[in-house]
Amino acid sequence: MTAHPLAGVIARMARLISGVNVRWVDSEPDARQTVYFANHSSHLDFVVLWSSLPAEIRARTRPVAAQDYWDKGLRRAIAVNIFRAVLVARRHASQEISTALDNPQEAIEHMLDAMGSDNSLILFPEGTRGTGEEIAAFKSGLYYLAQRKPGLRMVPAHLNNLNRILPKGEFLPVPFISRLTFGSALTLGPDEPKPAFLARARSALCRLRDI
Amino acid sequence: MKNLDPQLVWAFAGVLGLLALSSLIGLVLKAVVKKPEAQATIGNLNARIGAWWIMSAIFALTLAIGPVGSLVLFGLMSFLALREYVTLLPTRRADHRTLFWAFFIFTPLQYFLIAIQWYGMFAILIPVFAFLFVPARLAIAGDTELFLQRASTIQWGLMICVYCLSYTPALLMLKIPGYGRPAKLMLYLVLVDQLSDVLQYVWGKLLGRHKIAPVISPNKTWEGFIGGVLSATAVGTALWWMTPFRSAVAAAVSLTIALMGFAGGLTMSAIKRDRGVKDYGTLIKGHGGILDRMDSMCFAAPIFFHIMRYFYVR
């Protein structure tokens, strides 16, 4: 699939506004099918992560976003046409506290569909935006994707300071220099239980915060 | 292009010659020196020289455009410097809207006041109005945790990154009898201040033995300080023809610029050490961030401006 004509301009603008400093720790950009999983504290998160990927990888990488927030009007036009976001439904959309997926099985199928044979995904396994300080426990989606696609690369990506640029509940941004740190890929081990895998993935992400 | 008087052109020709000479020395050093630990220093030196070419070109271009060019350049530098500063300091969620005011209201307004030449308001916007506004806005936000520390952090950032730095293009407001347009004066300040930084670095690398402030800045030495300040003063004196000064006055003024610049570098380094970082940013290759480059200007510019205004403006 080809990138939207505005994709390059938007990526450049997002990098400029967020002043993002991108680092690949013990890793490098890889065009193979990958799930990038990141901590979530700002609406800017997926835009910045997506913008920081090399153009040819970006063209085949789709963010997973909450349908209740992104599925209306202009937001939808941007999310779907430019970022090619995969929208998944959350239960009790109006209450941010509940982050459970409306129908987890259906959402996983939807993501697998969107991935096809060569698309990558950007996923926020905490399920909702946090305060930017703590990384919450992961939801199970990451595990189910790994289970359904054996050998799928899972790359941790830690986003720093984006919650300071645009915190939850604010609509005007303040400029800070942000940082995005990619780590090395992990894959689901044979017979690795769900809690162990999710904990391992989360600690890989936490480790990047302190580097 | 009406700003391009011959003296300005001569000064820039000098800068061009200096850059060409530095690049040549950099190339020779790179080819001759083989010790691995010295090679890292030379790599950094060459990165710095490369960045100097770009910075000089941008400065020359904005100066040629006229006052608007300089105001946009310094306004943007203030904005980016403030961004580097607040990124490094601990701010809280409740500071968000106050910071928005600092970045998007006070910073542009400060430079706008220079553009319309309203000196009276330029001089008090941040020390009076922003000074009072910041804590009041924070109080309205309702978070009392570390209140005074947070208010002072924002006030101080506005003072250093915006107010003090804006004194450089503010020189363009001055009307000095018999001197013509003061763009030359701005170039003189930037030249002496930045050369003082460079010469302190060069003397320090060549002769530096005795650390002057080991806790704050491990690279600053007595040899670098004395050599740099004296040679910058010598350059500043030799450039008396582009200023309204007699040569003895040019010596005193450029010594003041160099000393203030040193104080600025030291102060801004103390903040970096407290926050446990080496540089404020990564925008300028080999140098660090805007604030790493402009720290000396933040201290030298206001003092230089007020010397000029007190003694030379009637």
Descriptive keywords:
heterodimer, A: about 210 residues, alpha/beta, Glycerol-3-phosphate (1)-acyltransferase, seven-stranded mixed sheet, B: about 325 residues, mainly alpha, 3 domains, 10 helices, about 75% helix, globular
Layout of helices and strands, plus pairs?
The complex is a heterodimer of chains A (211) and B (314).
Chain A: H1 7-18, E1 21-24, E2 34-38, H2 45-52, H3 55-58, E3 61-66, H4 67-70, H5 73-82, E4 86-88, H6 104-115, E5 120-123, H7 141-148, E6 153-160, H8 162-165, E7 179-182, H9 194-210
Parallel strand pairs in A: 1-7, 2-5, 2-6, 3-4, 3-5
Antiparallel strand pairs in A: 6-7
Chain B: H1 6-32, H2 36-65, H3 67-88, H4 96-115, H5 119-141, H6 147-170, H7 183-207, H8 222-238, H9 247-275, H10 290-312
Helix pairs in contact in B: 1-2, 2-3, 3-4, 3-6, 4-5, 4-6, 5-6, 6-10, 7-8, 7-9, 7-10, 8-9, 9-10
Give a written overview of the molecule.
- The complex is a heterodimer of chains A (211) and B (314).
- Chain A is 37% helix and 16% strand.
- Chain A is built from nine helices and seven strands, in the order αββααβααβαβαβαβα.
- Chain A has a seven-stranded mixed sheet with strand order 1-7-6-2-5-3-4, sandwiched between helices.
- Chain A is globular.
- With 314 residues, chain B is mainly alpha-helical.
- The radius of gyration of chain B is 20 Å and the shape is globular.
- Chain B starts with 5 loop residues before the first helix and ends with a helix.
- The model of chain B has no long low-confidence stretch (mean pLDDT 94).
